[in-house]
Amino acid sequence: MARTSQPDLFAAPEPDFFADAPPVAYRPEPDQVRARLNRILAQARAAATLPWDRSRTSLYRTIVPQMTLWLPEDEAEGWRLAFEAEMARFEEADQDERALAACHHRA
């Protein structure tokens, strides 16, 4: 009885239909990148404190700089600086809130 679980070592190789296909490159539309960055920054600017959970904040800290790489450098820098300014504002607000809480705790 022949084994069917073992490949036939002498069979002709199957043709690779994708061997000559060029690699698919993903290039996002700059207007879509701008729209997403604008939504993220609008959420941040509208909030007094960090509007996202830790996971989403970590995601945005990673992808916002990466997203800006698809834009012209001078524009990209503006988006990065705006996002970093919002993150700094949230960190400052968090520190102020902690200091206030510590002050009330001592009293």
Topology:
Blueprint: H1 30-46, H2 54-68, H3 73-106
Helix pairs in contact: 1-2, 1-3
List keywords for this structure.
107 residues; mainly alpha; elongated
Structure description:
By secondary structure, the chain is mainly alpha-helical. It has one domain (30-106). The protein has helices spanning 30-46, 54-68, 73-106. The N and C termini lie far apart (88 Å).
Distance between the termini: 88 Å
- Poorly predicted spans: none
Shape: elongated
Provide the number of structural domains.
Answer: 1
Number of strands: 0
How many H/I helical runs?
Answer: 3
Strand content: under 5%
In short:
The chain is mostly helical and 107 residues long.
